[in-house]
C-alpha cells in the first residue's frame, strides 16, 4: 500500500473517496451488465440512465431554470474559449471581456486574435502595497456589445469574484471551471456558464455548458458542428461519442454532493476551510497573501514565502511529508494550495500544521 498523500494540485485534482471506490467497483462490471464502465455503449439503456440522471442532478443542485439547456461536450475550457465567440458573436458585433487574471485573459486573446471585435477591460488591479483587488465598477459595456465575459474564479491567480458586474441586460457569459458547485449561484443572471469537470466535479475529459435557450441558433457558419451548441443540444450531447467515463464520474460527484447536503453545505465547508488557511497565513510573518481579503479564492489559495530562496526546500520537504502539488502556476511562481470540494477539512489542517512547522524550523 502507498502511504496516504494529500493532493493540492489545481486540476485534475483529488476526488472524494466514496466516488473513487464506487467507480472502481463499476470499472469491471458496470450496473451488473458484465461489461466495464469504459466498455459500455453510450447508446445502452444503462448509460442512458447515467446521462439523464447526471443532467437531472445538475439541474437540481444548481437550480437551473427550465429555459436553460445543459450540454455535455469535449474540448475543455479552452475549447469553449473558441466556442463562445463562434456561437454568440456576429461578424460586426462586439464582445466585452472583463479580465481579472490568467484564464479570462486567455479567453479574451482567443476571441480577439481569431473571431472578432473583443474589448479588453482590466478589472483587477494592484494597489500601492502590491495587493490585488477585483473591481468591476469602472468597466463599461460597449454600445453594440453582444456578450460580456467573466471568469468568476481565477485558478492561477487565486482571485475570486463574489459579485457580478452590471452588464445592462447584455448576456453575461461566465467561466466557472474552478468554482462550479463550490457555492450556490443564480443561474438566471447568466446567458451561459461553462466549466470543465476537472476542478470540482470530476476528472478531465468533459466540459459542460449551461446556456439560455434564446442564445442558441446564432452560431457562425464556419463554427465546427462539434462546437455548435444548437447542434449538440439537438442531439442531447450525443452528436459524437461523448466521454462516457467523465460523464459517469460527473454523475457520481453530483450524487455525492446531493447526499452531503448540496452546494449550500459545500459553501459552508469551503468558507471554513479557506478561512483556516488564510487566517494562518495572515497571522504569520513567514508567508504572504497578496490578494485583498474580499477577493481571495476559496479554492485556490495562492501565497508566497517571504524568503523565496526557501521555495525549493519548501517543495522538497512538503513532498516528503506527502503534501503534493503545492507549486504555484508557472506564470506566477510562488505557491498554490488547491482545496476544492473533495478536500476534507483534515487536509487543510494538515497543510496548516506543515506551514507552521516549516516556518518554525526556517525562521
Ligand atoms: C483549468 C481552467 C481552464 C482550462 O481548462 P482546460 O480544460 O484545460 O482547457 C479554463 N478556465 C479556468 C477558470 C480554469 O480553472
Tell me about this structure.
With 363 residues, the chain is an alpha/beta fold. The protein has 2 domains: 6-10 and 260-361, Aspartate Aminotransferase, domain 1, CATH 3.90.1150; 33-259, Aspartate Aminotransferase, domain 2, CATH 3.40.640.10. The protein is built from 9 helices and 16 strands. The site of pyridoxal-5'-phosphate (PLP) has 12 residues, from helix 3.
Find the count of extended strands (DSSP E, 2+ residues). 16
Shape: globular
Structural class: alpha/beta
Largest sheet: 7 strands, mixed
The distinct bound ligands, ions and cofactors come out as: pyridoxal-5'-phosphate
Mean pLDDT: 97
CATH class of the largest domain: Alpha Beta
The CATH superfamily title of the largest domain: Type I PLP-dependent aspartate aminotransferase-like (Major domain)
In terms of DSSP E residues, the strand content is 15-25%
Task: Output the keywords.
2 domains, cytoplasm, aminotransferase, globular, seven-stranded mixed beta sheet, EC 2.6.1.52, 363 residues, 16 strands, Aspartate Aminotransferase, domain 2, pyridoxine biosynthesis, 36% helix, binds pyridoxal-5'-phosphate, Pser_aminoTfrase, Aspartate Aminotransferase, domain 1
Layout of secondary structure:
Elements: E1 6-7, H1 17-28, H2 45-62, E2 68-73, H3 76-88, E3 94-99, H4 102-114, E4 117-122, E5 124-126, E6 132-134, E7 145-151, E8 153-154, E9 159-160, E10 172-175, E11 192-196, E12 207-212, H5 229-234, H6 244-260, H7 262-283, E13 287-288, E14 300-305, H8 311-320, E15 323-324, E16 335-338, H9 345-362
Parallel strand pairs: 1-15, 3-4, 3-7, 7-10, 10-11
Antiparallel strand pairs: 2-12, 5-6, 8-9, 11-12, 13-14, 14-16
Helix pairs in contact: 1-6, 2-6, 3-4, 6-7, 7-9
The protein binds pyridoxal-5'-phosphate.
Enzyme class: transferase
Pathway: Amino-acid biosynthesis; L-serine biosynthesis; L-serine from 3-phospho-D-glycerate: step 2/3; Cofactor biosynthesis; pyridoxine 5'-phosphate biosynthesis; pyridoxine 5'-phosphate from D-erythrose 4-phosphate: step 3/5
Cofactor: pyridoxal 5'-phosphate
Amino acid at each position: 500500500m502507498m502511504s496516504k498523500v494529500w493532493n493540492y494540485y489545481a486540476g485534475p485534482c483529488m476526488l472524494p473517496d466514496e466516488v473513487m471506490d464506487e467507480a472502481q467497483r463499476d470499472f469491471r462490471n458496470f450496473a451488473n451488465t458484465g461489461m466495464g464502465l469504459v466498455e459500455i455503449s453510450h447508446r445502452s439503456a444503462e448509460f442512458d440512465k447515467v446521462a439523464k440522471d447526471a443532467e437531472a442532478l445538475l439541474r437540481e443542485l444548481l437550480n437551473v431554470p427550465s429555459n436553460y439547456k445543459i450540454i455535455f461536450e469535449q474540448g475543455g475550457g479552452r475549447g469553449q474559449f473558441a466556442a463562445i465567440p463562434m456561437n454568440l458573436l456576429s461578424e460586426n458585433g462586439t464582445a466585452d471581456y472583463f479580465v481579472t487574471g490568467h484564464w479570462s485573459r486567455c479567453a479574451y486573446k482567443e476571441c480577439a486574435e481569431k473571431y472578432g471585435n473583443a474589448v479588453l477591460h482590466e478589472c483587477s488591479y494592484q494597489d500601492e502595497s502590491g495587493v490585488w483587488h477585483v473591481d468591476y465598477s469602472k468597466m463599461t459595456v460597449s454600445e453594440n456589445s453582444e456578450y460580456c465575459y467573466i471568469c468568476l474564479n481565477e485558478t492561477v491567480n487565486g482571485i475570486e469574484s463574489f459579485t457580478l458586474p452590471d452588464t445592462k441586460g447584455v448576456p453575461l457569459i461566465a467561466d466557472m471551471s474552478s468554482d462550479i458547485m463550490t457555492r450556490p449561484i443564480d443561474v438566471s443572471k447568466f446567458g451561459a456558464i461553462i466549466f470543465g469537470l476537472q476542478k470540482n466535479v470530476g476528472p478531465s475529459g468533459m466540459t459542460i455548458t449551461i446556456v439560455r435557450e434564446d442564445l442558441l441558433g446564432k452560431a457562425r457558419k464556419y463554427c465546427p458542428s462539434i462546437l455548435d451548441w444548437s447542434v449538440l443540444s439537438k442531439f442531447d450531447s450525443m452528436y459524437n461519442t461523448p466521454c462516457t467515463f467523465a460523464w459517469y464520474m460527473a454523475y457520481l460527484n453530483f450524487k455525492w454532493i446531493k447526499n452531503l447536503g448540496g452546494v449550500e453545505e459545500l459553501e459552508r465547508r469551503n468558507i471554513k476551510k479557506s478561512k483556516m488557511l488564510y487566517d494562518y497565513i495572515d497571522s504569520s510573518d513567514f508567508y504572504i497573501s497578496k490578494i485583498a481579503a474580499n477577493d481571495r479564492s476559496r479554492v485556490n489559495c495562492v501565497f508566497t514565502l517571504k524568503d523565496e530562496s526557501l521555495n525549493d526546500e519548501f517543495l522538497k520537504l512538503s513532498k516528503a511529508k506527502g503534501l503534493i502539488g503545492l507549486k504555484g502556476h508557472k506564470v506566477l511562481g510562488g505557491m498554490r494550495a488547491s482545496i476544492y470540494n473533495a478536500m476534507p477539512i483534515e487536509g487543510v489542517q494538515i497543510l496548516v500544521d506543515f506551514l507552521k512547522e516549516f516556518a518554525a524550523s526556517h525562521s
